[in-house]
Amino acid sequence: MNKDEEIRILVARFMDGDTTLDEECKLYCYFSGDEVSEDLLPIREYFRSIAVMRTPKQHQHKVRPVLHSLLSRPLFIGIAASIALLVVVGVGGMLWQPEPQDYCEAYIYNNHVTAPATVMKEVDETLQAIRQDGEPNVDGQLHDIFGKQ
Asked: Dihedral of the CA atoms 120, 124, 125, 127 (nearest 10)?
């Protein structure tokens, strides 16, 4: 079997996802060269672009202690910070008790009103004005606004 036949077989296996890293490296080297078979020229740029995107083999790292490796990971640090924030917010929420709201404030027809009875009366009147044709639900109001179908 000559080199071109071997490359055609590797291309078919590559398209099926059955190649090893070494076989893929052979393909990238073959298509990066100048001696590409005429019938394989249409896929030459495809393999060249993949070869450009490949990352070089990373060097073997020394084995580090697990704790050091774990603490240096950004994900672990983010999780630890999130847990600390939840603890602070949880404890702060238990210690801080907001004062009950005992006032009412609204602007009715450009007048500042603080009397709860006046505000509630105006709200009730507004809701009564919205209710048309005896339909107190949202569906009826939407049909009135957009027209009945």
From this structure: 140
Task: Please tell me the distance from the alpha carbon of residue 149 to that of residue 136, in angstroms, as a whole number.
Answer: 19
Q: What H or E segment, with its residue span, contains residue 137? A: none
**Model pLDDT, residue 59:** 42
Region 112-124: what's the mean pLDDT?
84
pLDDT at 97: 65
Name the residue ranges covered by the structural domains of the chain: 3-53, 106-146
pLDDT at 136 over 70: no
Give pLDDT tens digits for 75-93: 777 788 888 888 887 777 6
Residue with tokens 């009564």: 128
Residue written as token pair 């073997």? 60
Give the C-alpha separation, 20 to 12, whole Å: 13
3-state secondary structure labels for all residues of 2-21? CHHHHHHHHHHHHHHCCCCH
Residue type, 121: K
